[in-house]
Amino acid sequence: MIRHLQGDLYSVKIMWPRTAEERARGRNTGFVCFMTREDAQEAMDALQDQDPLLCGRRMCLRWGKNVKKSVKRGTGGVPIAPIRKKVHKTKDK
After folding, report:
1. Would you say 43 and 34 are in contact if contact means Cβ atoms under 8 Å apart?
2. DSSP character string of 78-93
3. Which residues have a Cβ under 8 Å from the Cβ of 78 and sit 6 or more positions away?
4. The pLDDT value given to residue 1
5. How far apart are CA 64 and CA 46, in angstroms?
6. Cα separation of 46 and 23, whole Å?
7. Three-class SS state of 33
């Protein structure tokens, strides 16, 4: 199973086959967006040409388009850093 992967995910999309022709190909497509490129590279290195689900199908991984991440604070279960007030330094007179 996929146990050795770590890193925060931004999104996962699975494209299920919709037509008979797509189902006949016997392959599915999915898109995974990690929060950092380093985590994505680690996942690609670990899973390329592997069968992590032990179902007799090897994964073929490629880089996709860059995803613009627009996360609103406190949504989607994404951990967020605390808001810190900026402290303005004043000059002594």
Report:
1. yes
2. ---PPP-PPPPP----
3. 8, 10, 71
4. 44
5. 17
6. 27
7. strand
